[in-house]
Amino acid sequence: PSVFSAIEMAPRDPILGITEAFNADTNPAKINLGVGVYYDDNGKVPLLKCVEKAEAILIEQHAPRTYLPIEGLAAYDKAVQELVFGADSAVIQEKRAVTVQALGGTGALKIGADFLKRFSPDSEVYISNPSWENHRALFESAGFKVNNYAYYDETTHGVNFPAMLAALKAMPRGAIVVLHACCHNPTGADLTQAQWDDVIAAVVAGGLVPFLDMAYQGFGAGIAEDGAVVRRFAATGVALLVSNSFSKSFSLYGERVGALSVVAASADEAARLLSQLKRVVRTNYSNPPIHGGKVIATALSTPELRQMWEDELAGMRVRIKEMRETFVQKLKAKAPGHDFDFVREQVGMFSYSGLTKEQVGKLREQSIYAVDTGRICVAALNSKNIDVVVDAIAKVL
Ligand code: PMP
Fold it and tell me: What is the C-alpha separation between 129 and 167, in angstroms, rounded?
């Protein structure tokens, strides 16, 4: 027998499983609300103009494809810091923040997890209940025990904040707490600024290690608004990790563009931290790919392209909000006995719609695909498919 003969089949990824079923469906009117991707009103993944222009500039340069430094392109890392912490941030000026380019937000989380495991091996990790489905697997694969903290409240479709705060206060010192900086995936339920005040105070008082995951900066209230919580954490002076992703905000999913930033207590500590982050990268994939990083560094540092990006990102943000509003109004007309107003309050690409697993199953019979948990991607709705979706939902309620 082969050395691999005893290997079992790994469980299927639940979200990719939906896409497989969707792809196999021969109904031409099928609709996939299970994805985590932004589609425009024509149902297409956009290629942003700022990306096209940046690529045109790069092609003209005919630059050789050398290796990037282990920590990635310097201009990219600098642009990330300014975006995440704010250009005037003290942690940048005092050289207390270090940033490494990463393979998407996922890669950033993984570098952070491996780094933390090396220096804080006995800490446990806490993620929201529910959270992005890869958070648990990722931290477990880095060797951590992963626990949930209370977050979503099914009855209000919002955050059960008292329970969340109590959970934070009960965590042991040194615990690593993964927080969604904005646009919570999968629920769409975010904290208010006043609730963040309490979270920050609890994290500081409890000696917790905050790991902010920001995969959707610009999809909530705006680029600076969504990043505000990172700045507020940075201002407290606690050790802080931030993973960010440009997959959605630049519609560059397949380029794998993200970064991990870590805030240290001093410039000296930061330099030592960076050297250790580089070790993690070096032993995993040596250095990151060049193209996506250059596109983003070019777009963010060229004023004309930067403005273009901010406008295009605002366009995506506004379209999602309009879809939320239309969804709520149309459902009100079609299913007057049911309250979907909470969908308007949710933020980002996703909504925990409140649909049950059974209802999701019935939608699938009509070739409309959502996640069993009831998560729908609002960014997959458009002016052409929304009536079909709303009619189908009204039928299964
Ligand atoms: N964190 C969260 C909360 C996410 O939803 C995602 C997926 N978009 C990621 C991280 C990973 O991002 P990326 O696709 O850039 O790896």
Answer: 11
Distance (Å) from CA 336 to ligand 1 centroid:
35
30 is catalytic: no
- The pLDDT assigned to 14 comes to 78
- Backbone phi, psi, residue 127, to 5°: -120, 160
Determine the pLDDT at residue 16: 80
Query: How big is the chain, counted in residues?
Result: 397
**Closest C-alpha residue for ligand 1 atom 9:** 105
Question: 63's torsion region: left (phi>0), alpha (psi -120 to 50) or beta?
Answer: beta
ipTM of the complex in this document = 0.99
> Is 132 labeled as catalytic in the residue annotation?
yes
Question: 34-72, pLDDT tens digit by residue?
Answer: 999 999 999 999 999 999 999 999 999 999 999 999 999
Contacts of 225 (CB under 8 A, 6+ apart): none
Residues 6+ apart with CB under 8 A from 194: none
Q: Is 311 a catalytic residue?
A: no
User: How far is residue 284 from each of residues 111, 213, 260, measured CA to CA in Å?
Assistant: 9, 21, 15
CA distance 332 to 321: 17
Rounded to whole angstroms, the Cα distance separating 196 from 235 reads 13
- Among candidate residues 213, 226, 294, 330, the one labeled active-site is 213
C-alpha torsion sign, points 162, 357, 17, 14: positive
User: Are the CB atoms for 181 and 211 separated by under 8 Å?
Assistant: no
106 Cα: distance to centroid of ligand 1 (angstroms): 6
Give 38-77 as a 3 state SS string.
CCCCCCCCCCCHHHHHHHHHHHHHCCCCCCCCCCCCHHHH
| CA–CA separation, 4 and 287 (whole Å) | 31
Please state, in angstroms and rounded to a whole number, the distance separating the CA atoms of residues 322 and 315: 10
Place of tokens 């933020």: 347
What DSSP string runs through 246-293? -TTTTT-GGG-EEEEEEE-SSHHHHHHHHHHHHHHHHHHTSS--SHHH
Facing residues of 210 across strands? 177
> How does 156-195 read in b/e, with b if 16+ C-beta sit within 10 Å?
ebbbbbeebbebbeebeeebbbbbbbbbbbbbbbbbeeee
Which residues are near ligand 1 (CB < 6 Å)?
36, 104-106, 132, 180, 185, 213, 215, 245, 247, 258
Q: What residues of the chain score a pLDDT lower than 70?
A: none
Pair of tokens at residue 111: 């570098």
